[in-house]
User: Fold this.
Amino acid sequence: MSNKRKTALITGITGQDGSYLADFLLAKNYAVYGLERRSSQKDRQNIQHIMGKIKMVSGDLLDEASLVHAIREAKPDEIYNLAAQSFVGESWKQPVYTGEVTGLGAVRVLEAVRQVDPKIKFYQASSSEMFGAVRETPQTETTPFYPRSPYGVAKLYAHWITVNYRESYGLFAVSGILFNHESPRRGLEFVTRKITYTAALIKQRRAKELRLGNLDASRDWGFAGDYVEAMWLMMQEKKPRDFVIGTGETHTVREFVEEVFLYLGLDYKKYVKIDKKLLRPAEVNYLKADASHVQRELGWKPKTDYKALARLMADADMAAVAHER
Ligand code: NAP
Ligand code: G4F
Assistant:
């Protein structure tokens, strides 16, 4: 085995997962390149702490030529395609754009890999949203897909095109089918972060209510910092394979709210208001992973449980809100 320092290119490095993956790969002594749109130079909050250690290359999943340039510049051994329009709610408002970025974006990266160097390994960020109106519970690598949003449909295209490029051209191309994973670096539009941030505002008397949509949806929530290790492990395999990554535990949005508010000494019933505008045209009601395959084959399992996740996010937002004052 060669001792050459490996190089990784991460699309979506400014996002939640991209930033944790960059931290993880730097600790493994990788040279890390991040693909970044010009517009995101304004928002490097998640990677501010490692700006001196990573190299940024400009590019956009909408522009294949930019991906070819970026891959030529970075010369990566591994590409992690984490970039996407990743907010399910927004995907009904921007269905075509979501298809372009989240769906066709993946094939643009795969084509760029084929053109520049087909030996580069490719990771695709697939999603439990592809299971949608679930056909069985818990969901495994063989559960049939039934997406319920333009986002889910776009992710399904990206997933199958990854499988097809593996089978058609022999690329080392894998998909991690990840269930919801959260952290203090999560965007404020996603429900867990919206809850912890708003609860912290309420606790510090800077907000009076928390407006939410469907409290009955259940999600299998894990910690993003744990999940990036699974991505990397999949890329170290001899043969490319897809895996489901999750905790195997599921909770409703209501339970998450209750957990966080109770932790901060608040009664959620006094503050939560249901806002019909936040209901989605179609809902994914229940997600629960069977992640026994990844545990058996790669020895991966989550380190942070649901309660610890809710608390670490609440603590981080209490500090963030206090700092913003
Ligand atoms: P995120 O925080 O929303 O990050 C998305 C990233 O994509 C950002 O860095 C964003 O950059 C970039 N991006 C968006 N459009 C782009 C474009 N046209 N060209 C290049 N970059 C673009 O998402 P995340 O939670 O880290 O998730 C990472 C990936 O995993 C996504 O593909 C998501 O769909 C998927 N996924 C997430 C979860 C989860 O629970 N978090 C579960 C399953 C799958 P800007 O800074 O420029 O906006
Ligand atoms: O936090 P969410 O917006 O995440 P969602 O839709 O499950 O998608 C996330 O996880 C996927 C993996 O399964 C990723 F692929 C995707 O990129 C993203 O990271 O919503 C979770 C649940 C939904 O059922 C939603 O209807 O929370 C419900 N919800 C209730 N009130 C709300 C709200 N969601 C949001 N964002 N905001 C609310 O006020």
